[in-house]
Design a protein that fits this description.
The chain is α+β, with helices and mostly antiparallel strands. It has seven helices and seven strands. Strand 4, helix 5 (about 95-110) and strand 5 form a beta-alpha-beta unit. It starts with a strand and ends with a helix.
């Protein structure tokens, strides 16, 4: 009998595993764009530590191993910005990303008062865009990341998270 993947709030003890997992997972995104300077690949460990301390950060665990993560925070306009959702390549396609997204949405709405959720996805990131649309996000615009990657901006109202995620 195998172990189950559990979702929980990230702790200080998870920071290094989150950092390593993020670096592994975002290699395929970097390859899509031919840009290995995307934010998740150049983020420093101390910055990840600061996010775990201040933002809404969840991890997926398989035993003691962190196999997925997501971060969210409330922005100046009151929206919840959700990002750096990633799942270990060997476990993708099993619903872990959707579970992480649901956990972040729930906490951001219930504990931090988010009125809407906002995500940014690279314009070539078909799998990510499919997931986000499946759970109720709609395209509201485009932007360019600090790293130059064209991004699609997606949003959904916070009150819909319970029924769509």
């Amino acid at each position: 009998m195998g172990m189950s993947v559990t979702i929980s709030v990230a702790t200080e003890q998870d920071v290094e595993q989150i950092f390593r997992l993020q670096y592994l997972c975002f290699q395929s995104e970097a390859a899509l764009y031919g840009n290995y300077r995307i934010d998740p690949l150049v983020q420093r460990l101390d910055s990840v530590r600061a996010e775990v301390d201040s933002d809404c950060v969840f991890v997926a665990r398989l035993g003691e191993e962190v196999v997925g993560t997501v971060r969210g925070r409330i922005t100046e306009d009151g929206a919840a910005s959700i990002g750096k959702l990633c799942v270990h390549p060997r476990l993708q396609g099993h619903g872990i990303g959707a579970r992480l997204l649901r956990a972040a949405e729930s906490a951001l709405a219930e504990e931090r008062g988010a009125k809407k959720f906002r995500l940014f996805a690279g314009h070539r990131s078909e799998g990510n865009l499919r997931l986000y649309r499946r759970v109720g996000y709609e395209t509201v615009g485009t932007s360019k990341g600090d790293d130059g990657v064209p991004m699609i901006v997606l949003e959904k109202p916070a009150e819909t998270y319970a029924t769509t995620a």
